[in-house]
Amino acid sequence: MARMSDQPARWSQATVYPDMWADPDDDPRNSEGTSPDGELPTLQDFMKDYRLTLRMKCEGLDAEQLARRPVPPSTMSLLGLVRHLAEVERDWRNWISDGEPLPKLYGKRDADFAGAVADRTVVESAYADLAREQAATDAALAAHPDLGTRLGKDGIAVRELMVHRIEEYARHCGHADLLRECVDGRVGQ
Questions:
Q1: Which of 1, 49, 129, 152 lies 20 to 30 Å from 26, alpha-carbon distance?
Q2: Which CATH number does the domain housing residue 157 bear?
Q3: DSSP state at residue 113
Q4: Rounded CA gap, 39 and 34, in Å?
Q5: Region Disordered: which residues (predicted)?
């Protein structure tokens, strides 16, 4: 059991607002102008920002830090979250497909977390998997701009899938906040 003195000191890279992850001028999630018009562009904007937030929470860490499981008995790690979200992007594509489901990326249940080991090749592969699966899901959904369209064997609405994706990323970005603070003490929105 870790003692309080074993915990890393809390810190933020931000200097303007110390409770933020990055200064507003340096935060790639900040966009100029007004928010997007329309439901689909708004959902896509939220999705983009949560994806970017996950990457930001992982940046600057080495393979050991990314694979570290700092909250026992949980097997959750930042690298595990990257692998998990690659897996669920593929699962979402399976939901909207009429064809045979694509196989799991990492094998049996929880293999996305169990296989998140401190190896640079595993880290690089996880990021490549995530980018590929995100692009494939985005492309599949781009073919259906009407949010009311029902897809796949279960007839899931595009809107429901979009909202579920945002919810999944938002929840895991919250996990990433806590995991990152445990790894090196960095905090912020």
A1: 129
A2: 1.20.120.450
A3: H
A4: 14
A5: 1-42
